[in-house]
C-alpha cells in the first residue's frame, strides 16, 4: 500500500457526518502515535511478524488520511526506537527492509507527496542506520521540505532521552564556541534544539495495544499532551477508535490548555527575572529604576540576537547533514 | 450549529457515563477500614511491587487526609519511595501540614505494631525536612512542575559550565551521564508506577525524564478514596508485563 492512497478508502456519508460534528469542537493540530501491537497482531492471526509490521504500515497510511480529513496538520509516529536494535537480528533486518521499501516507494510517488503537500521529517539518530537507508531518508526529506500543508514526523532510531542529550550537547557546543552564555539556556531554547524544533508540542498522544507508558517517546514534548491509551492492537485501530480519541481530547482540552497557558506565563516571568539578574550581575547593584529598565530591555534584545544566531548555526549544521547525504547519493548513482 | 448541538450531546453523555462508572466503582467499599497488617499481607500476594510510586494529584482541591492515607497505604505495602505531585506546588508549600497529618494518622493506627518512619524530602530546597536520614524507612518526596523540565535545564546549565571550564567536551554528554546527574539530585530511582487522580488525562509536567518506562494508571479522584480501589490499581500494575522494546 502506498503512503497516500489515491482512492479514498470507503468514506461514507456517516464518516463525513461524524467529521463535521467533531470539527465543531476543538481539533488537535498535532497528534503523536505509538503504533504498538503489530507483533501481537501477527501472532494472534498466526501470520509472519513481517506481515504484521506491513499491516501496521498500511494502518498508518489510513490514519494519515483520517487526520487530513479532520484537519489535523501534523502527525508524529514512533516507527523504530533505539531500543528496537536489541531485537533479534532477523527482525531488525526485516524492519529496516520494510523502511527501505517504504521510503523507496515514497520517492517513486513524488507527485503524490507534492499533490498532498506533505512535508516529511525523520527524527532520530540517523547515523545508526545503514548507509543506503540514510540516503533514502535524506532524499525523501529533501524532496518534501518545501511542503507546508501537513507534516509527518517519523521517529526512527529515536529515543527521547537521546534526543534531549543531543540538544544539551548542542547547547554546550554553543557555549563552548562563545555563541551562547550559560544563562541563555532556557526551556524555550532547549526545545528549539530538539529534533522536533519545527513543531509545536503534540496536543494528543495515542498509544495502542493497551500499554500505558510512554516508552521513551517525546517525554519532554508530551508534558501537556492529552494521553489516549487505546486497548486495540495497532493494525486493528479503526476510524471509530480514532474518533473516540478525538472526543477524549475534546473532553480534556480546556483543563490542559489552562495549565499550559499558566506554565507559559510562568516561563515568561522567569525569563524576565533571569534577564534582570544577569544585568544586576554585570553592572553591580547601584542602579536607579528607569535606567535599570532600559538596560534589562537591551539585555533581552542582545540575548535574543545571540539565541537567533546560535539557532541558525544549529539549523545549518543539521541541513548540512541531509545535503551531504543527498549529494553522495547523486554522485554514487 | 446543528453539529455543535450534537457534539454537546455526545460529550454530555460521555460525562454522565464516566460519572456513573466512577460511582459504581466506589460502591463495593462499604466503609470497611483495613488495618496496616492486612495491607502488608496484600502486598505479599503481589508478584511485582513498585519501588517508587508517583501520586499525581491533578485536582483543584486537596484532601490532606486522603493524601495521607495514600502515603500510609503505600508505605505499609512496602513501597520504598513515594512522590506526591501537584502542578503548582501547593503540597510543597504546605508540607508541614501534610506531614503532621501523616504522622497523626499513623499514630491512630494499631499502636502495638512497629511503624516505618516516613522521611519527607523537598528536592528543590535541597534539604530533608523531617526524619532521620540514616534510619530505614519510607522516603516521601513532594514535587511540582518546577522539578520537571526546569531541572533538566539546570542540569544542562551545569554541563555547559563544565564544558566552558574545559572539564569535559560536548561530545561526552550522553543520556547515561544526564541520568546519573538527575539521579544524584533526586536521590531516588525512576518511578515504576504513576497513579493520576482527577479527570485530566495528562501528566501535566510530571518529571519528563524519569517518566520513560513508568506505567501510567488513573483513578477518578483522591477524595474519599478507599483502600480497595487503591489496592486494585497497584494490583493492575503487578500484572503488567514490560518488554522494553525487545
Automatic annotation (TrEMBL), chain A:
Requisite cofactors: Mg(2+)
Pathway it works in: Protein modification; protein glycosylation
UniProt membrane topology term: Peripheral membrane protein
EC number(s) on file: 2.5.1.-
Catalytic reaction list: n isopentenyl diphosphate + (2E,6E)-farnesyl diphosphate = a di-trans,poly-cis-polyprenyl diphosphate + n diphosphate
Keywords: Endoplasmic reticulum, Magnesium, Membrane, Transferase
GO molecular function: ditrans,polycis-polyprenyl diphosphate synthase [(2E,6E)-farnesyl diphosphate specific] activity
SUPFAM superfamilies: Undecaprenyl diphosphate synthase
InterPro entries: UPP_synth-like (IPR001441), UPP_synth-like_CS (IPR018520), UPP_synth-like_sf (IPR036424)
Keyword Endoplasmic reticulum: yes
GO CC field: endoplasmic reticulum membrane
Predominant subcellular localization, coarse grouping: endoplasmic reticulum
Keyword Magnesium found: yes
Subcellular location: Endoplasmic reticulum membrane
Subunit structure comment from the entry: Forms an active dehydrodolichyl diphosphate synthase complex with NUS1.
Family designation: Belongs to the UPP synthase family.
Free-text function comment from the UniProt entry: With NUS1, forms the dehydrodolichyl diphosphate synthase (DDS) complex, an essential component of the dolichol monophosphate (Dol-P) biosynthetic machinery. Adds multiple copies of isopentenyl pyrophosphate (IPP) to farnesyl pyrophosphate (FPP) to produce dehydrodolichyl diphosphate (Dedol-PP), a precursor of dolichol which is utilized as a sugar carrier in protein glycosylation in the endoplasmic reticulum (ER).
Name under which the protein is recorded: Alkyl transferase
Higher taxonomy: Eukaryota, Metazoa, Spiralia, Lophotrochozoa, Mollusca
UniProtKB/TrEMBL annotation, chain B:
Any one GO CC term of the record: endoplasmic reticulum membrane
TM region(s), chain numbering: 6-25
Catalysed reaction, written as an equation: n isopentenyl diphosphate + (2E,6E)-farnesyl diphosphate = a di-trans,poly-cis-polyprenyl diphosphate + n diphosphate
A Pfam family recorded for this sequence: Prenyltransf
Listed EC numbers: 2.5.1.87
Cofactor field: Mg(2+)
Gene3D superfamilies associated with the record: Decaprenyl diphosphate synthase-like
InterPro entries: Nus1/NgBR, UPP_synth-like, UPP_synth-like_sf
This protein's UniProt keywords: Endoplasmic reticulum, Magnesium, Membrane, Transferase, Transmembrane, Transmembrane helix
Pathways per UniProt: Protein modification; protein glycosylation
Subcellular location as annotated: Endoplasmic reticulum membrane
Example GO molecular function: ditrans,polycis-polyprenyl diphosphate synthase [(2E,6E)-farnesyl diphosphate specific] activity
Coiled-coil spans in chain: none
Protein family per UniProt: Belongs to the UPP synthase family.
PANTHER family associated with the record: DEHYDRODOLICHYL DIPHOSPHATE SYNTHASE COMPLEX SUBUNIT NUS1
Name of this protein: ditrans,polycis-polyprenyl diphosphate synthase [(2E,6E)-farnesyldiphosphate specific]
Organism, as annotated: Sinanodonta woodiana (Chinese pond mussel)
